[in-house]
TrEMBL record, chain A:
An example molecular function term from Gene Ontology annotations: transcription coregulator activity
Location within or outside the cell: Nucleus
Record family assignment: Belongs to the Mediator complex subunit 18 family.
Function according to Swiss-Prot or TrEMBL: Component of the Mediator complex, a coactivator involved in the regulated transcription of nearly all RNA polymerase II-dependent genes. Mediator functions as a bridge to convey information from gene-specific regulatory proteins to the basal RNA polymerase II transcription machinery. Mediator is recruited to promoters by direct interactions with regulatory proteins and serves as a scaffold for the assembly of a functional preinitiation complex with RNA polymerase II and the general transcription factors.
One annotated GO biological process: termination of RNA polymerase II transcription
Name used for this protein in its record: Mediator of RNA polymerase II transcription subunit 18
GO cellular component, one term: mediator complex
Record key words, sorted: Activator, Nucleus, Transcription, Transcription regulation
Assembly notes: Component of the Mediator complex.
UniProtKB/TrEMBL annotation, chain B:
Pfam families: Med20 (PF08612)
Primary location: nucleus
Quaternary structure and interacting proteins, as annotated: Component of the Mediator complex.
Record protein name field: Mediator of RNA polymerase II transcription subunit 20
Lineage: Eukaryota, Fungi, Dikarya, Ascomycota, Saccharomycotina
Primary role: Component of the Mediator complex, a coactivator involved in the regulated transcription of nearly all RNA polymerase II-dependent genes. Mediator functions as a bridge to convey information from gene-specific regulatory proteins to the basal RNA polymerase II transcription machinery. Mediator is recruited to promoters by direct interactions with regulatory proteins and serves as a scaffold for the assembly of a functional preinitiation complex with RNA polymerase II and the general transcription factors.
Any GO molecular function: transcription coregulator activity
């Protein structure tokens, strides 16, 4: 489990170069490119609806969570003009590819958590699968809901232990003929997420320090962008209809 | 070749006495400790209504989920298809004395590309699987077997692993001794030591039995297979 403290914002497409230069000079480290693919899985009932009818909407239904599967986009290193060279289906059936499985709690509520968002993330890595990750998830009772790519730049602030991601969210749709189409959800702009990770949620001192660092970081960037606390409801992984 | 011996005992200290016997009878040394943990989950039977409108065919399927951990590796099995989940901290290659650890290939890459947030995933990080399984009403835990106080020794050309097997109610189900060797003679030597040990140190009615005579060890998943064999044999 990792406790993640974060603040978010957004910038224009045109501001990217200026912002990258600014933040690199602020932090004293160069920005690096990153690209990953994320698959969100929803619990699907293994059992027939007739069995479920006996159990009405209970607390356990609400506690069901989405699972995020994430891995490095294999074409990330090259110029991504030919994104179709590795279809999603191939990626899902690949047996030796490393995956991260993660799920989150809803960010903490309360007055103490109004300055930064504080969220618990549970994650594990899967190194090897016998029949592909998708089959495993299906057997576990989960079905793929949507797929998206995160592509952007990352800057690390070593002294403050803050990571700043500037990225685009690209939705990936796969048609029946296995042709994936991509749609930029952050059109004309980039998401900015500044965060600090703490290994233990019980490590109050580190959390305090990280919170102060994030607030400090926010002040530093005040003239360039306004970092905000994200809405905690949209950060929830629970299966609910909003 | 893999020989597995089960010593039927209810005394948790038998393994300590056995350790003494193994060390006294040869120039062996305890290399490392090991443990395993197996949890079986079951989903309620599936009622599938197939066929045309007239004749409804009801099909019942059981779903099994096994959760095994061995040293720094974890294996999750759904319907006997496996997924291996590996701790990030076991990146160094370890091929000492037949113990193979899975080397995670691109976990650093995952970390760099924002897929993973934790640098040191601790062993036993089955929290996420537990969370998934507990929040998901269809999976119910049925069985839990664990191996504790395990030691691994090298005797001449063979590797000897010992472990105490407990059930979920913490009842000792006996001590398991596993001998891995290519050489028949060394295996026999270890068996002689075991024989002597059972005769000398254990109560008269104690028995020991050979679990699996010649089991080929080729694939990396065999450790898990052995653990499954243990459980099957002990009828847990």
């Amino acid at each position: 489990m990792v406790q993640q403290l974060s603040l978010v914002s957004a910038i224009d497409e045109e501001s990217l170069q200026v912002f990258l230069t600014t933040i690199s000079s602020f932090t004293g480290t160069p920005h690096i490119a990153f690209e990953n693919i994320n698959l969100t899985y929803l619990p699907k009932e293994l059992t027939d609806s007739s069995l479920n009818a006996l159990e009405t909407e209970s607390e356990s239904d609400k506690q069901q969570k989405r699972i995020n599967l994430s891995t490095v986009w294999p074409n990330g290193d090259s110029d991504s003009t030919n994104t179709n060279s590795m279809p999603l289906a191939t990626l899902l059936n690949e047996k030796t590819i490393g995956w991260t499985l993660s799920t989150c709690d809803i960010p903490l509520a309360g007055n103490n958590n109004k300055q930064v968002s504080s969220q618990a993330i549970y994650e594990t890595t899967v190194g090897e699968t016998e029949s592909g990750i998708d089959t495993f998830m299906k057997d576990l009772g989960y079905g793929c809901d949507y797929v998206y790519k995160k592509k952007g730049h990352r800057v690390f602030h070593p002294a403050m232990m803050i990571i700043c991601d500037i990225f685009k969210v690209i939705s990936v749709m796969t048609s029946e003929e296995n042709v994936s189409t991509e749609k930029d959800l952050t059109e004309n702009g980039y998401m900015v997420k500044c965060y600090a990770n703490i290994d233990q949620a019980t490590d109050i001192e580190s959390i305090k320090l990280a919170t102060n660092n994030l607030i400090e970081f926010k002040k530093m960037l005040q003239k360039y962008l306004e970092l905000q606390v994200p809405d905690r409801k949209v950060m929830d992984f629970s299966v609910k209809d909003y | 070749m893999k020989h597995v011996v089960h010593i039927d005992t209810r005394d948790a200290n038998t393994i300590v006495q056995l350790s003494d016997a193994l060390i006294n009878h040869s120039y062996s040394r305890s290399l490392q400790q090991w443990s395993f943990d197996s949890k079986t989950f079951r989903a309620p039977s599936k009622t599938e209504q197939t066929g045309a409108d007239t004749n409804l065919v009801t099909e019942k399927t059981q779903y099994f989920l096994h959760f095994l951990s061995f040293n720094n590796q974890q294996e999750v099995l759904v319907n006997y298809k496996s997924v291996t989940s590996t701790s990030n901290s076991t990146q160094e290659k370890c091929h000492q004395n037949g113990i193979k650890l899975c080397v995670p290939g691109n976990f650093t890459k995952l970390l760099q590309n924002g897929c993973l947030f934790q640098e040191n995933l601790q062993f036993g990080n089955d929290l996420i699987f537990n969370k998934i399984l507990n929040s998901n009403k269809k999976w119910q835990q049925r069985q839990s077997v664990s191996g504790k106080q395990g030691h691994i020794y090298t005797l001449n050309k063979s590797t000897v692993k010992t472990i105490n097997v407990y059930t979920s109610s913490n009842e000792l189900k006996g001590c398991i001794v596993q001998i891995d060797s290519e050489d028949k003679e060394t295996v026999n030597n270890v068996l002689v030591i075991l024989n002597l040990f059972v005769e000398e140190c254990l109560p008269k009615n104690s028995t020991y039995s050979l679990l699996d005579k010649e089991h080929e060890t080729t694939d990396s998943g065999s450790e898990f297979q052995t653990i499954r064999d243990y459980i099957k044999f002990l009828d847990l």
